[in-house]
Fold:
Amino acid sequence: MGRAAGAGWPLAALLLAVSVLSAALLAPGGSPERGAQAAPPRELDKKSHVELKMDQALLLIQNELLGRNVTVLWQSERCYRCSLQVLANVSGSGKPGKPRITAVAVNTQHGSILQVNDALEEKEVCRLEYKFGEFGNYSLLVKHSQNGLGESACDLVVNENPVDSNLPVTIAFLIGLALIITISFLRFLFSLDDFHNCISKAMNSRETDRLINSELGSPSRADPLGGETRPEPWRPAASPHRLRCVDTFRGIALILMVFVNYGGGKYWYFKHASWNGLTVADLVFPWFVFIMGSSIFLSMTSMLQRGCSKFRLLGKIAWRSFLLICIGIVIVNPNYCLGPLSWDKVRIPGVLQRLGVTFFVVAVLELLFAKPVPENCASERSCLSLRDVTSSWPQWLVILMLESIWLGLTFFLPVPGCPKGYLGPGGIGDFGKYPNCTGGAAGYIDHLLLGADHLYKHPSSTVLYHTEVAYDPEGILGTINSIVMAFLGVQAGKILLYYKDRTKDILIRFTAWCCILGLISIGLTKISENEGFIPVNKNLWSISYVTTLSSFAFFILLILYPVVDVRGLWTGTPFFYPGMNSILVYVGHEVFQNYFPFQWRLEDNQSHKEHLTQNIVATVLWVLIAYILYKKKIFLKI
Structure:
């Protein structure tokens, strides 16, 4: 099954990039000609002309009420407990049949709530909910009701149909799926002896054998502290020293991270949630933290078994953590030849900074309480053996203590001007009562210890909640739950190593952890985005966010381990390659993000299809780079 694994990957990746590029350029999912909306020119004031941008539609508000001014208020349906915002003020009609018209742009990412108020009497005229389509043209008619009682009514009319902005994503997905099916079918054909012999006779047998029988490298089950090692031959069945699913999982998280960091086609579901809830972008960082925890245990066990002293390991841990933090500070403070950056404005938290701190705490914790890994657990009854958990009871006590600190500070720390235990976004959330309370205790601690000038200035909460205070999603308090997430990854690593010869027991434990963490998430969130005790929130790195994403992570390993390492049905291609060079790919994609060929000038900057094409090509290029480095045996370790 594995003879042709990955042999045609560079060509397939290139075909994918070219196919997606061609399909996206041909897809009718771009933006229409601006200014072509169907509005009566004689009735629409030239000053009211609106230049539509991506994820916007044109709304013509027509007030037919004689001498009665109206105010139109707006709110996104995803904005939880938000105060309505003024969208437009429209003066009353001067003559019957001559409505006053005002043109405004409305958001199309989510459903909208519109409320029309009588400006003089300040009473509600009408209220409606509607999901506008991108670049569509709509009219909101405010008129007298036909019931003869002098009441007012509203009606929404579609003047011009919107475009299907999701069509480029659908086409890209179908092309990728077709390529996967084609490559899998070709691999299946090459695995058949008759077909293989036929091809061998038609081609130079020596060259054919070299191409078909070439095997990809594999990381060790116990790779070094950096999580990246030189490759070893891969075998599809279970050899206790071969573990490929860890690097594959790391590569999946990393490639998704590259794609969303490059923009994800500018689609809202490839961006971080404005506050509570999950999008695709919210999945990747915690998964990376989780798999880092697994690598910590596997690599540390390997080095201790090879006779490396704990003191020397402590030095390696401290040095790697220091380098991650330093590199992270450099990356999150780009200059691009704009002049010297003031130390007073340097952002301190960041992704690599959090990884560095998390790595140090979890690795030191494991180093202090490290115990020899049992050679064989088969003598114990599989269903009752909990050695992977009971052997870590000192670490669990520390983790529970850290989580108690998070809960205590989050719900009981007094924050000036904010209610205790506040988990909201501030801004216009909670009906505008706490505009400067973004993040509650988490935001307050960062402002107190780091200062507002050293925090992220454009958090995702500004999108819907119009927050104005600085808030850093990689802040101090959330790092505690990042440590918890990494430690859950350590547990996954212990399961893989303690029960390495017992696939059934590994799968049972992955399933148990997945269900337990899932049930905890259900209890904390009440299966609700906003109404639970502790909502799932990436900005806060809430404990429900950690349990939910850890449950997903155990489920992914539950799928990957038997498919990749036991049965050999999939080699992990193409995610395995960037997973073997994760630091290089992450740092490289951040540093070269604005350079050609990862970015170029778009013909239409307001087109999803062009952004999606650019982001897919850039992501595929990093996979190709990782593949080439893998073949050249070049691995960046820190």
Residues 264-373+385-547 form one domain.
